[in-house]
Design brief:
- The complex is a heterodimer of chains A (501) and B (305).
- With 501 residues, chain A is an alpha/beta fold.
- Chain A contains 17 helices and 22 strands.
- Helix content of chain A is 33%, strand content 25%.
- In chain A, α6 links the parallel β7 and β8.
- Chain B has one domain: Orthogonal Bundle (ABC transporter involved in vitamin B12 uptake, BtuC), CATH 1.10.3470.
- In chain B, 73% of the residues lie in helices and 0% in strands.
- In chain B, α3 crosses α9 and α4 runs antiparallel to α5.
- Classes of the chains: A alpha/beta (501), B mainly alpha (305).
- Chains A and B meet through α1, α10, α11 and β18 of A and α7 and α8 of B.
Chain lengths: 501, 305
Amino acid sequence: MTQTLLLDAAGIAKTYAGVRALKGVSFDLRPGEVHALVGENGAGKSTLIKIITGAEKPDAGTLRVAGRDVPHMDPATSHALGIAAIYQQPALFPHLTVAENVALALESAGLWRTVDWRRRREAAASLLARIGSAIDPARTVDTLSMPEQQIVEIAKAIGVNARIVVMDEPTASLTSREVERLFQVIGRLREAQVGVIYISHRLEEIFAVADRITVLRDGLTVETRAASEVERGELIRLMVGREISAVFPKEPIEIGEPVLEVEGLTSAAAGIRDVSLTVHRGEILGIAGLVGSGRTELARTMFGLTPAEAGTIRLNGIPLRVASPADAIRAGIAYVPEDRRQHGVILDMSIAANTSLANLDAVSRHGLIDRGRERAAAQGYVDRLRIKTPSVLADVGTLSGGNQQKVALARWLSTRPAVIILDEPTQGVDVGSKAEIHALMQMLAARGLAIIMISSELPEILGMSDRIAVMHRGTIRGVLDRAEATQSSILALALAPATTH
Amino acid sequence: MAGAVIALALVLAAVTPGFFARDNLSDLFLANMPVLIIALGMTLVILTGHIDISVGSLFAVCAVISGVLAKTGWPMPLVVVAACAVGVLIGIVNGSLVAFLRIPAIVVTLAVMIGLREGLRWATEGAWIQDLPASYQWLGLGPRGYPFVVLAVVTGLQIAFGWALANLAAGRAVYAVGSSPGAARLAGLHVERVTVAVFAVAGALVGIAAVLNSVRFNQIPSNTGLGLELKVIAAVVVGGTAISGGRGTAVGTLLGVILLSAIGPALTFLGVSAYWERAIHGVIILAAVAIDAIRPVTVTRPAAA
């Protein structure tokens, strides 16, 4: 079949402040296909997307859209050519309604035009209905959950009759069911001869949705293959340029005494009720559940960030009163939050300062920080966790996502916890770093640390956990043993309709 | 920043050696001493991501209270302590409203600024404090001894704050809270306590500055310190402290004060109309903020994902 390529980018190069982000990338997109773009963090995926959407200008290379040369791509041109992008973090106006947000993309500009509010709402509602969503267009965006916001973004893209839709990590904050929904939407886009550029770190999704896969590494196109002609291990090898284990490094560890025992924990503010769980020495307890099922809220309550009205928390058999993170840290509970750029690390601070922040007492005497000791301690973690950096004095903001996450981990390991809660520990982390973080978890468990791992990624939950607690509507619906847990048994619990009202 | 100050000094040294005469420098130093001291406290407040525009009014309140107490016969050390205590008290009020009620600092301190200024006008009925006792004048040290004491105090404070910000856990907490309150809270820092503390310290420094400044004159005008907050904030910003918090140093603030306070007299010495002073201040502030705005793009750009 001969057809015009929707997009044809050839020999694209881009240099940022002396760093060559792209050294000559070629990429094309056919109508009605899903073309996945994969590669480790820093491979150049985001830069390529920025060039396609006109956010950045390439230093070299040609860009053709629907057979026509586009010498000067900018955001307005890209919009006019029917290119729409959906990012990991939806870019909506939080105080405007869904209908208004959609209208901003849809309706023509002109500051003095009058608005037909009823039509505006109907237009938004019909677009949302087309992708099977029943979000009320009159709601303001700040009342929507992250996945709902993503759906609004997709509705916007469909509304402008986009010919090319770029999806950059669209499932990062979605649960399995919502991912299914997204894939149905992608299926409809494909039928409508729209081309989809799909970026994700989750290889399962890539294989489920993509027609072709292009691998980028170090700013170069490594290969473009049909998805059916490449298998997982080979794809990972192409991405990292070396063999790495595609399986989880989980080995059986002898499970010890209970470390953390939670009973009947209830917090109205956090929306969790009657949660009981136990974690033992050397054990990894996975917490699964849909986004909004209360996993992060449970962690925040155990860590003293949200007050609990009822319930007890015992550590090594001793009842604790956890009224603040400081109490939790002193007792031996550590919490590595999701959203590492906001809460996990401080980007403006050095690795050394980040590492010592939760346990400044360990590197200071009478409130006076011993810089030498602080640096030495940080260097120890840089070596142990294999954090890639020229110096412990480098700002964390200059590191890649995977290395930032390791710094967050270092901060919490330095508090010498008995139990550590990891909230989405590998979200947005490249394949190589992901394997390293999993290996670290295994090593920490082997040393007797009790680990609670919250994750939206089922393979990770199944691969790393000894037991799996599944949450639903703020409470634990069931706990599965490693042996009996499967994707479907977890989903069955996570999706369970409420039995009582 | 340091370069700008050195360049200015070199130009002045070459063109007008008179600028560096001892009397001129001494006058310049004493006139800007309040800005110098208060800017240290303001640096802490801005580092935590807040701002305090009530310092000018508080300065007047502390000055007047110190004069009144001195007249009723309080010994000088107690007068200083009392002025600081008033400053700390107002600082705690500011800080608590910001930290616990989560009202933006600019609104809280705007209200306090107006409240203090108008309260003072009501209490003094606009009258100046006069007939100050001899023990109050020049701190009882005479016009010769006084500058050395002030120099010692300012130097001591400058070194103490610079050292503390870099080396104390408390200093690290200030940076952490300003960079990312969420991350700081998770790391077990008491974000509210840090916030209240920086406002309290800023208040104490206003008290010290008010007393040290008032003793130079025969009377204390009840409208003293008008516009002081703007000079202080300008100096801190020019000194490289990010207005959004988390980045900045005490040394930077010192250089900021020197640069802004030396421009006016320098113009006079160079024979340029002094009316240009404010305009040049404006340009310097814009330049400082622009440099700060451009910096993160090139320096802390995260590795492309």
